[in-house]
Amino acid sequence: MHDDDLLTPREAARLLRVSVPTLAWWARIGALKPALHTPGGHRRYRRADVLAFRESADREDPERGRREQDAVRLYEQGWSIRQVADRFDCGYGTMRRILMRRTTLRGPNDRHRPY
Predict the structure, then answer these.
(1) Do residue 38 and residue 8 come from a single domain?
(2) For a disulfide at 6, which of 1, 44, 70, 80, Cβ 3.0-4.6 Å?
(3) pTM value?
(4) Contacts for 70 with CB less than 8 Å, ≥ 6 apart
(5) Which domain holds residue 91?
C-alpha cells in the first residue's frame, strides 16, 4: 500500500462531506473502518474504501439528492439558511454545508427575502 493511497481523517471527512467526529463515530461502529493506525495511534483510511463508501451511501439514499435540490430551490427563492433547516428538520450547520456544496451562499449584506 502506498502512502498516496492513505488519507488522514480530515482528508477522508472532506471527501465524504462530513465532520471528522462523524467519521470517527463511523469508525467506532464499524461502518467505515480505518485501514491502519499509525504508531502514534492516528487513523488512516484507504482512498478506495472512502470513495466506495461514498458511492454506496449515495445509492442507498436517492431521496437525499431530491431533498437537497428542494433545499437549494427554497434558499434561492430567498429563504434564510435557518428557515430552510427548520423546514427540513435539520441543524443550521448541516444545512449550511449542504447549501455550500450546491450553490453560492448570500453574504450578510444581501437582503434577498421571500415575498
Answers:
(1) yes
(2) 44
(3) 0.52
(4) 88
(5) 62-102
